[in-house]
Design a protein that fits this description.
heterodimer, A: three-stranded antiparallel beta sheet, 42% strand, B: seven-stranded mixed beta sheet, four-stranded antiparallel beta sheet
Chain lengths: 109, 123
């Protein structure tokens, strides 16, 4: 079981905004950076956000991240059908162990 | 262009062993730590192991510690994951991931991923 908690699913209509939460503890999210990954069915994950709120080149600014203590958030604005995927948050837990959230499935209605 | 190509997966009996390989290209090997992340069928991601850019430091998740060994060969730019005493719960797609930094520390992230190799542990 993941030490980071994400909602199993979120949904919204095209053009709307979805927010995915990633809840942890002061020992992980509260002290460390969070990254986010997007995964389409049958494919490898892809880096979406790093250092809480930075986007790699090529990632649209419709994707944004934030970290407010023991909870991190990924916002997707202007939702598109191509955004339907699973999204995972990641941070650190104990010494040098990376930890992932359980994942959130985004559905475009 | 960064490319990560995993191989070595397959069907193995409980208690058996497998050696996964990740052939990397498109970047300077010693400049990046490397990691393995797995995903059981229909489940989320689980970090397995990491190795520093130099290869001198290794790190393991609790669920595999003592059964898995990560290593790398700079001459061929290949990362390996030797898995022993495999269990049914080790069944997963194993992804090789390039880390942004040469060291594994509490700010790194997985900036590139391979397509994965499936390991099935079953009798």
């Amino acid at each position: 079981q993941s030490v980071l908690t994400q909602p199993p699913s979120v949904s919204a209509a095209p053009g709307q905004k979805v927010t995915i939460s990633c809840s942890g503890y002061s020992s992980n999210i509260g002290t460390d950076y969070v990254s986010w990954y997007q995964q389409f069915p049958g494919t490898a994950p892809k880096l979406l956000i790093y250092d809480n709120n930075k986007r790699p080149s090529g990632i649209p600014d419709r994707f944004s991240g934030s970290n407010s203590g023991t909870s991190a958030t990924l916002d997707i604005t202007g939702l598109q059908p191509g955004d339907e995927a699973d999204y995972f948050c990641a941070t650190w837990d104990r010494s040098l162990s990376a930890s992932f959230g359980g994942g959130t499935k985004v559905t475009v209605l | 262009e960064v490319q990560l190509l995993e191989s070595g997966g397959g069907l193995v009996q409980p208690g058996g062993s497998l050696r996964l390989s990740c052939a990397a290209s498109g970047f300077t090997s010693r400049s990046h730590a490397m990691s393995w992340v797995r995903q059981a069928p229909g489940k989320g991601l689980e970090w397995v192991s990491a190795i520093s850019g130099s290869g001198g430091s290794t790190y393991y998740g609790e669920s595999v510690k003592g059964r898995v060994t990560i290593s790398r060969d700079h001459s061929t730019n290949t990362v390996f994951l030797q898995m022993n005493n495999l269990r049914a719960e080790d069944t997963a797609v194993y992804y090789c991931a390039k880390v942004d930094s040469s060291v594994w520390y509490r700010r790194t992230y997985f900036e590139d991923w391979g397509q994965g190799t499936l390991v099935t542990v079953s009798s």
